[in-house]
Design brief:
Three copies of one chain form a homotrimer.
Chain A lengths: L3 E2 L9 E10 L5 E5 L4 E2 L3 H11 L7 E4 L2 H13 L3 H9 L5 E8 L7 H12 L13 H4 L3 E4 L2 E4 L3 H10 L6 E5 L14 E2 L9 E3 L3 E3 L4 E2 L3 E3 L3 E3 L2 E2 L4 E2 L3 E3 L4 E2 L12 E2 L4 E2 L4 E3 L7 E2 L4 E3 L3 E5 L5 E6 L9 E5 L6 E5 L8 H5 L2
Parallel strand pairs in A: 10-12, 11-14, 12-15, 13-16, 14-17, 15-18, 17-20, 18-21, 19-22, 21-23, 22-24, 23-27, 25-28
Antiparallel strand pairs in A: 1-5, 2-3, 2-4, 2-6, 5-6, 7-8, 7-9, 25-26, 27-28
Chain lengths: 354, 354, 354
């Protein structure tokens, strides 16, 4: 009933809880969970019902399957506490599908697949912002799965499933082989356009008013806080402020490919040009010229308004200087930063219909 | 019968017309239309039949559903006028599916979803070239929809549909959340290869002999006029001439991400290198070296054949100078343009089997 | 019985053989083949059985359908030779599906679609390494097909199939229009993560321990030999050594887009930064700074450890100099190569869970 019990935990941190539909492997192991209606800080009564069901104290994390005889009892108890969506989910799901309940603290290290999936859901439902959850160790917990037209499949079961599909005259399409599924299989938050959903992982936080174009990409625990046009890549951990624009193919350096330990971010009202990139936290109101990659160690000639040289420093030393335009002087080859005096003029019609 | 009537219009401009199969929302609103056989300048008799059915004068635009009792009458009239494909479409479609007819002038501002979809079809069927249609206001008309394995779905209906699929043991796959669907759900024009169709929007014009590789992208009202190898991004409004090649990850600046108001184009027999880009109209026979981004304002040292400096100017001033190679001098860091004296040697076998 | 007989051939080179399930066109032509269990150098007895069935000498290549009356006989013979997987495939496949057998020599020029598909399978099953097979002429042999949610469809049959799907209230999704399908429809090799399978063609060789992220791409006859993080593009023919890392949007120059005739490769323990690229074979232990494209002709200032200039040469002259860091001096604009004295520190947790 309670295969996972994450031990005692500071009960002062926010609780989250959800009822989910799980995929299981041939050996009946939970490999993935869909939580249609996760909650942050659910009502005390609801937490109490779930904790009692899971055999947990209020300060513990854990999950358990909701099995046959318990379904009606738990649904009734939740309905009585006003949790009609959860109750309805339980009572409307056939007994041969795997239901489970999970409760979790935001700052608890996850120790099971249902807990990791709940945390990733919280991010993509915009219930918590990137970089505010403890996700340590989740890579080791998650299974590398085939995400297919028939759902999540364990890799050692895949060849037989693919052959069987072909022998029926069908094709089992494998969209992805990964530890992380794509977000839209679980949730599409309000007010966004996502041109190619294959490029947005569950755990991405896509702000209201954000458009992610075909060349855009958003990793887990990363995203945009509000209106944004994303045609570049938002690496794991990177947060982009409101009214910013990542041009086509632009890059924010993560930790996957030689990036350092500094967390990269993009401020408000920034523009990273097409095929440009940053390896340092970009302050509000800055522009990176198309095609220019500025790493933290890039030496930059900082110019005054009149074009005279103020100083030369590394880019990461400019991480708190707002409203600079970074460009490579096309005659001297030097990277320069100059104060911006006019505002960025984005296409109004496009953004007004995000 | 005629919910949309776009008013009187100059009848001298080209007509287009089509019979379509529509998706409707739960509230029975048309949200998307598939026109299998759109026509530009259909026979006068055919236009007359459709206008009469729609209650329009010949100079008006409009659309209407083809409802139960009218289906046989309209099919017979169209068959009598030789429009056997349209007649067959009407008579072979079950009564519970939504059929509609639409007539439109190319230079009329669209005022309804069926009209916008007809215009986008005309482009992708190669009946009209990019930048020759009036598309003003279409962003506001189109609905942001989930394009899924079960077809187009309104976003407020999506969560229930996804839950229902999971409860059946299936997955409703959301490919895209966007105002524009992908082209190949509607038409695959002849003589093209499209390695990843998720990256080509309806309204793209893909010329005969064009290959769009996995990293290629083509927006609406944009495309290639003939043979081309596209591994880069063709932004909205950008037209690429014959025998040109956009290298992997290359960029053509549009209006979405800080681009200016000048329409970018690529001439014939051009090569934009991998990860390169342009922010000015590139004339015939030009090459941009891999990795170099030339915006309209980039100052360029224009060299003579012998390497001596002819002049220094901004790139947009070179928008009518053909056969230049743009490169960044790897020792001085200066952007240079030098006359090309040899021809581009593309891989013959690959291109001959486009 | 033996529509294709590739003539006599040097029998000393490795044999390959497989039993496959084929898709056929409306005119009953084989257009694509799925070989679940291809073999390199199968047992002599097995080859003998297949060659006898195909009417081939041991030094010949060829293929033939396995038709009704022959199925049981061939299955029994293969089972008797210990080929239980092949025997089971034949006996478990319904008679209305097209089965075929194919034998092939690695260095024989393919002359049929089943032979090309067998060679591409050998690569993706990691039975042979890239650049070790003769693939000449395969572009001309392969058909340009629509790869759809209903399997492979000939392009002239597509419009009717798409209309029929819409008239049933469904959508026939066209994933790709190409001569090459995606790899994962045929095989997912062990120990890999493939975030967006649309970007990996059949014929790619994905080494054990490789992660291909969403922005990664791997063409046929190309790939990684072991552990690698691929967020960039591996062009046809390019081989990447163990423990190397291709940053987001990075490029390896192929022959498709203006690349020359030199085969590009990436050594062991290399890092190509985000949005960077190479146009020359990169030796072991080298780093290309983010955003820098080094072509074979790029003039490079080669520096000593103390920063003094050793020499200036073209990058392709450095194709055997290991452990260099390539960067563009951000003040002078010159491309420089300096010896690397510290090791690359990749994210350990991420790579340990590939």
């Amino acid at each position: 009933m309670h295969p996972t019990n994450n031990g005692s935990h500071n009960s002062g941190t926010p609780h989250s809880a959800a009822i989910g539909l799980a995929s299981v492997s041939a050996s009946d192991e939970v490999i993935e969970v869909f939580y249609p209606s996760p909650q942050l800080n659910p009502a005390a009564k609801s937490v109490s019902i779930l904790c009692q069901y899971l055999g947990l104290s209020k300060s513990e994390n854990g999950w358990a399957r909701i099995t046959g005889p318990d379904r009606r009892l738990l649904a009734n108890a939740l309905a009585g506490a006003g949790e009609t969506t959860w109750a309805e989910l339980i009572s409307s799901t056939d007994i041969d599908h795997t239901l489970l309940a999970c409760v979790n603290h935001m700052d608890a290290t996850p120790v099971s697949i249902p807990e990791v999936f709940l945390k990733l859901h919280l991010l993509s439902h915009r219930l918590v912002k990137p970089q505010t959850l403890v996700l340590d160790g989740m890579f080791a917990l998650l299974k590398n799965l085939a995400w297919t037209s028939e759902g999540a499949i364990e890799l050692d079961e895949l060849p037989a499933r693919q052959l069987a599909a072909r022998q029926r005259g069908e094709v089992l399409d494998v969209h992805s082989v990964d530890k992380f599924p794509k977000m839209t299989t679980y949730v599409v938050p309000s007010g966004v356009r996502l041109a190619d959903t294959a490029r947005i992982r569950l755990g991405a936080y896509i702000g209201e008013g954000t458009t992610v174009m075909h060349e855009g990409f958003v990793n887990f625990n990363a995203g945009t806080l509000g209106t944004a046009m994303v045609e570049g890549r938002i690496s794991a951990g990177v947060v982009v402020g409101e009214d910013s624009d990542l041009g086509g193919g632009s890059s924010t350096m993560g930790t996957l490919s030689g990036g350092g330990s500094i967390i990269i971010s993009v401020g408000r009202n920034c523009l990273i040009g097409a095929n440009a990139g940053i390896g340092f936290p970009l302050p509000d109101g800055c522009i990176i010229e198309a095609g220019l990659y500025v790493t933290g160690g890039t030496k930059v000639n900082v110019l005054a308004q009149d074009g005279s040289l103020n100083k030369t420093c590394k880019a990461h030393e400019l991480a708190s200087t707002t409203s600079l335009l970074y460009r490579r002087n096309s005659l001297s080859g030097a990277v320069e930063a100059i104060p911006i005096t006019h505002s960025i003029d984005l296409n109004t019609e496009l953004h007004s219909h995000n």
